[in-house]
Amino acid sequence: MRRYDMPPSADSFEEATKMFGVLVTDLASPHSGELPHHELEELLEMRGRDLLRQLFQDHLDLRERREREAVSKSRPAVVGADGLLRPRLETGHQRLLATVFGTVTVSRCAWRRLQTANVHPADAVLSLPKGRHSHGLARLVIQHAIRTSYDATKETVDRRCGPILGKRRLAQILVEAAGDIDAYYEARVVQPCTAATVLVLSADGKGIVMRPEALREAPRQAAARRQRTFRTRLAIGEKNARKRMATLGAVYDAEPAPRRPHDVIAPPGKRAGDDTPRPGPLARQKWLCASVRHDAEHVVGQVFAHAQARDPHHRRSWVVLVDGARHQLDLVRAEARFHHVDVHIVIDIIHVLEKIWAAAWCFHHTGDKSTEDWAATQALAILHGDAAGVADTLQAQADASGLPQEQRQGADVCVRYLRNNNDFLHYDRALEAGWPIATGIIEGAARHLIADRLDISGARWGLKGAEAVLKLRAVAANGDLDTYWQHHLAAEHQRNYPVDQPRYSLTA
User: Fold this and answer.
1) 79-88, long-range: CB < 8 A, 24+ apart
2) Angle between helical axes of 387-401 and 370-383 (0-180°, round to 10)
3) Distance between CA atoms of residues 32 and 24, nearest Å
4) C-alpha angle 126/130/131, rounded to 5°?
5) Confidence of residue 234 (pLDDT cuts 50, 70, 90)
6) How far apart are CA 79 and CA 59, in angstroms?
7) pLDDT for the residue numbered 369
8) Which of 411, 451, 80 is nearest to 248 (CA)?
9) Across the chain, what does the average pLDDT equal?
10) Nearest CA to 450 among 172, 299, 245, 156?
11) Residue 223 pLDDT
């Protein structure tokens, strides 16, 4: 241990300087001159990381010496989070810090009081985490873990930083990192838009394969009661009941882009060569949110709250794109009543087209080329605002065809769908107003946020880990990861060091 009164030395970085000199000497040696470039890369990567770790360590040691020098001249009054004074001073207290360069040792002064926790003012100056792993290492984990598996992330960290992080701690880092996302978006000021800009809201759900203890109560009980037909595999129609539904929400702005029905669906006989379809509205300032912990009601509430922040006085047209699920429609209308806003609910045209094609196969054989013209004719009629008329036509055609019940099922489903959702199929008004009529934004988000990461082969998620990764992926998709990380570090510092301690004059 160094002497207590040792002043800061001019040679504080002597060890790092020696390591650099040895590295330069090795690179200048005849042996290095015979190495291929990839071996030089490996040499510099390994030795360079050791050099950076030593520079980090030397700097921390310099801080320790400066702190000792400062407190030897003047002892400040140090108070803990409990409001009690710490009168006793002890030097040489150490803790480990795992960084992106490797593990270093932080030595600092401790201010003590009997039967109370020690206070380390230098920890607050460095903004050290409560755990061993640095914020830089946590950021590295996040950057990789939201894109690839935990195993691949750990392998990357081990290769770059050494074996300083276990898989369980990696998962905990992600959970801790996602803890301030809701507060970040609640405090964020949204850029205003003109009253003519359309405000578009949408929500969707997608299942995530979970561990049994992470399932919701009803699926967990159903899985416990389920009796499998076979012992080693599922029978036809049987499901594992291992998924928990995640809900995603989207809010974005769109400038109105009026269109005609044949801009969306080419009429039979193909589009004329000089008849270029008008483009639809483009999404701007897209914002995504998602949760597997909370139910759909919570996420739809978040979507409306964010829309309310964008248009607090309800001067814009609110368009809500849905897939026609009754529960989703009920939630949307309940939130609209709560916020006292008039919303225009539009069912996704793609879902309608799927129903039309299911009906088409009731009246056409597989491979019949006239099927496409038939489906286009029905779709164009719906786009003109005549969904009820199309339903009547399909009903009459199914009755006149004399098809047995099992063969006309697709047509019956389409008829019921069109009649039950007729109030939300006024595409003629939507196209004239220039609104979007498809849920491509939220469908794409479901594929990107969930399928590309949480639905990878063999993945089974715990509730905390799935929620953290899903929300962090949403923040990254919003382009907010850098600004959110600064918000998180500030919040983490406030939690770890709620009391402002006297800052030593460490430049002594």
Assistant:
1) 79/119, 79/499, 79/501, 80/113, 80/116, 80/117, 80/119, 80/499, 81/498, 81/499, 82/116, 84/113, 84/116, 85/113, 86/111, 86/112, 86/113, 86/116, 86/118, 86/119, 87/111, 87/113, 88/112, 88/113
2) 140
3) 10
4) 110
5) low
6) 27
7) 84
8) 451
9) 90
10) 245
11) 64
> How far is C-alpha 336 from the chain's CA centre?
26
Provide the 3-class DSSP secondary structure of residue 339.
helix
Q: Are 425 and 379 in contact (CB under 8 A)?
A: no
Per-residue pLDDT averaged across 259-272, rounded? 84
pLDDT in tens, 182-219: 999 999 888 888 999 999 999 999 999 998 888 887 76
Taking the chain, what is the end-to-end CA distance rounded to the nearest angstrom?
21
User: Minimal CA–CA distance to 26: which of 37, 15, 40?
Assistant: 40
Q: Between the CA of residue 484 and those of 126, 139, 289, what are the distances in Å?
A: 20, 11, 14
Residue 45 backbone dihedrals phi, psi, to 5 degrees: -65, -45
| Per-residue pLDDT at 2 exceeds 60 | no
Give the integer Cα–Cα distance in Å for 129 and 172. 13
Two tokens, residue 349: 């045209």
What are 418's two structure tokens?
A: 């069109």
Residue type, 380: L
Work out the average pLDDT over 396-417: 90
Taking the mean position of all CA atoms in its chain, how far away is CA 468? 8
- Spatial separation of the C-alpha atoms in residues 358 and 414, rounded to whole Å: 8
Beta bridge partners of 95: 106
CA 62/CA 12 separation, integer angstroms: 6
Residues in the chain: 508
pLDDT score recorded for residue 191: 84
Q: Cα(380)–Cα(365) distance, rounded to whole angstroms? A: 22
- Give the C-alpha separation, 190 to 160, whole Å: 38
SS3 call for 261: helix
Q: How many CB atoms lie within 10 A of CB 321?
A: 28
* Residue pointed to by tokens 């803790």: 95
pLDDT at 153: 95
**Structure confidence at residue 216 (pLDDT):** 82
**CA pair distance 139, 73, nearest whole angstrom:** 38
